[in-house]
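Whiteboard transcription, Tuesday session. T.W. wrote the structure tokens on the left side:
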């Protein structure tokens, strides 16, 4: 076994970090290029003095240089590539597609718009629709952590969160197969905290980590409860056919492998989109990116993509079975009207109830 750094020399640094003033500060690790706080791109492997990040790219990752000021044609080509990748997924509305592209963009904006970020929920009305595959694309492109099920209670949820933040570096965390009503005060607290503190499992030591991850859940007919409803970015897909797992006429046959083969091109496309806007406004135009879950709605209401997000969030308030509704089945007015299609369906349901 090769020792990369002598244990005897490393131990004092671990036990007394405040005494090691000559050591450089390390804020985190990234496995793909990302914009710094000033909008420049961190794309040189190794330690970055400005961002205090360690860039450790995969050996086979190649990303072309990103233009400082992308042209309209370059931006159009970048968006075309991203939409080509997800064209076989039947998003319920255009807002769901906008939210997904926002989720895909969020991990690259960690230095421009600090965390925490909203929870991403990718749902579908039936199994085999492609929700886990859609979430998996986020992990393949950005790197991430996968857990095959959601912890059954808050105690287990806390353990999972602590372990992931303490020993992993992937910016996307996918928790698969949500069932029933998901209501978690621990997860709700995580979504409003830029840092996470807890006792390490099997130890008396204390850990403190930056919560700069994008947390994503998947499930069929997912229902959220409590504060999770307003701290969630929703993406719904609906194939619109029975037995969707039997479909075969896809534009991209093996999507997993295609994304791996074109990962460098996809990251380049995302970086082009981040460079299109100045660093000071990029965070405000990133779709699903909402640094402050409590103030995010007000911040996003000022631009078209934010209005799309608000309409999708408004639609999902009714997913909490304990959410208080107005009398006679009429929903309270929101700051942004719901999508026309869903408003018509709601009116139709109210009319049918009144005529019975």
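and on the right, the sequence the group agreed on:
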């Amino acid at each position: 076994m090769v020792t990369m750094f002598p244990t005897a020399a490393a131990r004092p640094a671990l036990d007394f970090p405040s005494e090691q003033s000559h050591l450089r500060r390390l804020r985190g690790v990234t496995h793909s290029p990302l914009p710094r706080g000033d909008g420049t791109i961190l794309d040189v492997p190794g330690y970055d003095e400005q961002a205090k990040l360690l860039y450790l790219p995969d050996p086979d990752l190649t990303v072309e240089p990103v233009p400082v000021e992308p042209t309209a044609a370059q931006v159009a080509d970048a968006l075309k590539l991203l939409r080509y990748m997800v064209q076989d997924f039947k998003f319920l509305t255009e807002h769901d597609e906008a939210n997904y592209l926002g989720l895909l963009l969020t991990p690259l904006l960690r230095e421009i718009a600090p965390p925490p970020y909203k929870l991403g929920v990718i749902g579908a009305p039936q199994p085999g629709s492609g929700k886990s595959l859609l979430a998996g694309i986020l992990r393949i492109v950005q790197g991430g952590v996968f857990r095959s099920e959601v912890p059954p209670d808050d105690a287990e949820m806390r353990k999972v969160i602590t372990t992931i933040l303490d020993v992993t570096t992937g910016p996307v965390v996918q928790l698969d197969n949500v069932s029933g009503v998901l209501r978690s005060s621990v997860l709700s607290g995580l979504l409003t905290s830029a840092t996470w503190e807890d006792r390490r499992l099997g130890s008396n030591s204390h850990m403190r980590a930056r919560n700069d991850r994008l947390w994503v859940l998947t499930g069929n007919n997912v229902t959220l409860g409590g504060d999770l409803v307003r701290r969630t970015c929703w993406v719904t897909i609906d194939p619109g056919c029975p037995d969707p797992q039997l479909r075969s006429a896809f534009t991209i046959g093996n999507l997993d492998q295609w994304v791996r083969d074109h990962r460098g091109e996809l990251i380049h496309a995302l970086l082009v989109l981040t460079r299109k806007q100045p660093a000071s406004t990029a965070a405000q135009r990133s779709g699903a990116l909402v640094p402050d879950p409590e103030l995010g709605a007000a911040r996003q209401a000022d631009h078209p993509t934010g209005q799309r997000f608000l309409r999708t969030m408004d639609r999902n308030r009714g997913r909490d079975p304990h959410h208080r509704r107005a009398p006679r089945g009429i929903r309270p007015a929101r700051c942004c009207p719901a999508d026309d299609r869903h408003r018509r369906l709601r009116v139709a349901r109210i009319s049918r109830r009144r005529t019975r």
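Someone added at the bottom: Residues 278-315, 320-344, 346-356 have pLDDT under 50 and may be disordered.
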